[in-house]
Sequence to fold (111 residues):
Amino acid sequence: MEGVTKALDKAMKSMDLEKISGVMEKFESTFEDLDVRTNVLEDAMSTATTLSTPTDQVSALIQQVADENGLDVMSQLAEATPGTSLPAAQVGERSRAQEDHLDRRLAELRH
Fold:
């Protein structure tokens, strides 16, 4: 990167558009390479961190924080449906209500 900025300074002083264009293309290429390398490194670190964190230790830490603050988190987590912020019972109720509504609409459309 440092070499690219020095080359850009030289090209700007000479005001040669071809040199400026070439240096800018080199800078863009270098920047794209850096972006790809950064993404690969971030993905690798994320995967390594996720895989190396024991689930039982995470659960124990959640329980410890809940105990310190007088919360009943584990029972709420057990009731939660993955991928939603609602307890499983509410998800089922909502689905039945939606299904009943759709059945009524279908019946109305058939008549």
User: Anything to note?
Assistant: Residues 17-52 form the longest helix (36 residues). The helical segments are 2-14, 17-52, 55-68, 73-79, 88-110.
